[in-house]
Each structure stands twice: as C-alpha cells, then as structure tokens.
Amino acid sequence: MRVLVLGGDGFCGWPTALHFSARGHEVVIVDNLVRRATDGELGVQSLTPIRSLDERLDAWRELTGREIEFRNLNVARDYEALEELLRTERPDAVVHFAEQRAAPYSMKSRHHKRYTVDNNVNATNNLLCAMVEAAPDAHLLHLGTMGVYGYGKARGLRVPEGYVEATLRSGGAEADIEMLYPPDPGSIYHMTKCLDQQLFQFYAKNDGLKITDLHQGIVWGTSTPETDMDERLINRFDYDGDYGTVLNRFLMQAAIGHPLTVHGTGGQTRAFIHIRDTVRCIELAALSPPKRGDRVRIMNQMTECHRVRDLAALVSTRTGVPVEHLDNPRKEAPENDLDVENAGLIGLGLNPTFLSEGLMHEVIAVAQRYADRCDRNRIVCTSRWVQDVAGAAAQQAAE
Ligand code: NAD
Ligand code: USQ
Hints:
Layout: E1 2-6, H1 13-22, E2 26-31, H2 34-42, H3 53-64, E3 68-72, H4 79-89, E4 93-96, H5 103-106, H6 110-134, E5 139-145, E6 163-170, E7 173-180, H7 188-207, E8 210-216, E9 218-220, H8 246-256, E10 260-263, E11 269-274, H9 275-287, E12 297-301, E13 304-307, H10 308-319, E14 323-326, H11 343-347, H12 357-369, H13 389-398
Parallel strand pairs: 1-2, 1-4, 2-3, 4-5, 5-8, 8-12, 9-11, 10-14
Antiparallel strand pairs: 6-7, 11-13
Helix pairs in contact: 1-9, 4-6, 6-7, 8-10, 8-12
The site of nicotinamide-adenine-dinucleotide has 27 residues, from helix 2, helix 6, strand 5 and strand 9.
C-alpha cells in the first residue's frame, strides 16, 4: 500500500508511520511540525529527547534501508499543495492525525479555542475536498475520539460503534431510524471531532468517499518495537498539564516522586488503548477498506475502561507515591460508568493489550531515564474550562 500519514511527526503518527514502513508499505509523512512549535509556546519539551524529523528519517533509512518521505505542509491552510500531493502520490490510504489534540490546550483562552476549531475543521474539510478532486478511490482513516459520545451519559447503555437505533417522534407520528450516536463533547477539542463526523457523513453520502473513523480512547505507553530500535527513533512523551494524558502522567509522576494529580474525586471512567495497539488497529483497518458508497465505517479503538482514581490507586500501591486530589479544572461529570463496544477491530484481528504491571513499569523506566528533563512546574494542569470555578461547581451541583 501507498500510505500518506498526515500528522506523522506526532505521538501516534510517528510510530504508525514506522509500523507501516516496517511492513513494506510505502509511506509519506505530511506534517507542518506545529506540535514542536507548541512545545516552544508552552515552554515545555517532550520528556523523551525526540530528534528532528530529518534525523528520525535518516536513522530509519540507516537501520532498515527503508525510505519514508516527508512533506512539510499545513493541511488546514495549504489546500492547493495538498491536492497536488494527492494527485502525484496516488495513495491507497490516507491516515489523518493532523489535528490539535489536547482538550486542556483547546480551553486555555479564546485564541486556543479558535485555533483548535480553525485548524481541525479546516484540515479535515480540506482533506475531504482534495480527495474528491484528486484521490476519490483512496481510503481515509481518521483518528477520532471516544469523547464524541460523552462517556456513558445514557446509563446502562453500551456505547455503540458510531450508530444507534432510535425512534423519532414528531407531529404525532414516529419512525425508527439509525443515526449517529448523539454527540456530547466535553471540550472545544472534542467538539471539533463531532464536527469532523458530520463532514464525513456528507462526503461519504455525496461523493462516495471511503471513510473509516476510529474513535480512539486515551493512548498510553510510549514505545513500539520500531521506536525501540534506536534512541534516534524515540517517540514523544507528553507529561505536562496540557498535553500529558492521565495514565502516562501518573506513571511519569510516580517515576519522579510527584504526588499523583487526580482531578476531583477521580470518578471519571475513560477508555484506554496502548500505543502498540493503536498502530496495529490502524494497519488492520487500512487493510480492509470499506467500498465506495458504503456509509462511514466507525470503530471504537480502545481495549479497556478504567476509573481515574483506580488507576491512581494502582500506581500508588505499586510505587508508594501518594495520591493528591486536586480541584478539577474541567467541567465534567465527577463520576461516570462506561461500557464500550469494540467488536469492529477485534473482528479485524486485534488481539488486545491490557494494562499490566510489566507495561506500566516499562513506561516508568522510560520516565526515570529522562527524569532530569522534567520541569516540575509544568505538571499540574492550569487550563480551566470556566474561569468562575466556584460558580461552575455550584451549577454542576444543581444539575
Ligand atoms: P500530536 O499532537 O502528538 O500529533 C499531531 C501531529 O499533527 C503533530 O505532529 C502536528 O505537528 C501535526 N499537525 C497538527 N495540525 C496540522 C496541520 N494543520 N497540518 C499538518 N500537520 C498538523 O497528537 P497525537 O497524540 O499523535 O494524536 C493524533 C490524533 O489522534 C489526533 O487527531 C487525536 O485527536 C487522536 N487521538 C489521540 C489520542 C491520544 O491519547 N494521544 C487519543 C484519541 C485520539
Ligand atoms: N485527569 C486527572 N488527572 C490528570 C489528568 C487528567 O484526573 O493529571 C482526568 C481528566 O480530568 C479526565 C481524564 O483524566 O477526566 C482524562 O483526561 P486526559 O487528559 O487523559 O484525556 P482527554 O482530555 O480526554 O484527552 C485524551 C487525548 C485526546 C483524546 C482523548 C480520548 O488528549 O486527544 O481524544 O484522550 S477520550 O478521553 O476517550 O475522549
């Protein structure tokens, strides 16, 4: 397969590009390196010392003899160049990771809200529009999020893979339909993924594009067999209050002896997947594309659900690092249950990796190795969903 990996310099994109290349697929990375620029904006670096993309690609060529090409292009802005790239590269599959993906970053200020919507929605629409013009037979695989569903608000219902049966009642009549599960985003970032979903529905219906939307849970872990081959291939490890995700943050905090930063009661239950399964899922989905004219294929890319306070307790028991309950900077349900369908990817052959002591220790060991790169002042999340925290808490209690 010829595969374009948009966002291929990022945390999920880099190991995915290597995974495809290692299996003999031809890979082109498209990225505008904005994530590296954001490190500069936030004054924090990946815990692991990631190399420049050129150095990464040279190392990959040296170690494997395989070539990965790179195009520096802003998918949200450089429309003509994107269309030309699709025309000349003639990809079989386009994997779309090229979005601003941190919920706290998206809520930092009016600038960050507008940037996130602008970047993510334009990137997706540009890509779809360009595919209609220049690569109508290519298969688009988009990385969406479990957050589009809103984490199990409909109590007792298993979260389906995208679509739900519903009965509509209006004007005294009723009709049974199948529809997208009602979106319920919890941040501006998650909202952009709901908007992406609508774009996919339209372009699949109108233009017959082949689209797979992978609603991914929180990715944890940092390395894959390919990124482990050489330190020059090392993956990102975000630990800061904006980009770090919860389990990797707890493991890193344990490594440096920082109290584990549980938001509120820690009653939030979320879906998780290890980075090694992320890359496998994407290849599995790419190897079995939908047909032109099919509806958008939606699969939940997650392997297990955990409650935040249970994860903290597990890490604390194993390492002796205490748990600290902080005021929750987010506006989210303090407690929720979550039951998620993931038959799609299992049916394609995913053999799930579950949370295990060995894998947790692997992450702690990576964090310990680079502990001197950690800026402890960047650990606690300072981005708040609403400025008036007391008012928000009162409103939440009243709801
Ligand atoms: P990341 O920020 O590490 O990587 C995103 C990459 O896209 C970066 O290299 C960035 O430079 C690039 N990019 C962003 N906007 C671009 C643009 N306009 N043009 C070109 N390149 C652009 O994020 P990640 O963790 O690798 O996440 C990748 C995708 O997976 C995101 O869409 C995210 O929503 C989704 N996802 C991630 C997680 C997770 O836990 N990391 C979980 C669920 C879904
Ligand atoms: N949390 C803590 N302590 C922390 C960090 C987070 O208690 O130090 C809590 C948060 O309040 C939240 C939960 O942990 O309740 C998850 O937070 P997170 O930052 O790990 O995940 P989230 O913001 O949802 O975003 C991440 C990725 C995003 C992806 C999403 C998948 O950054 O790209 O879409 O996970 S999901 O959560 O399934 O929607």
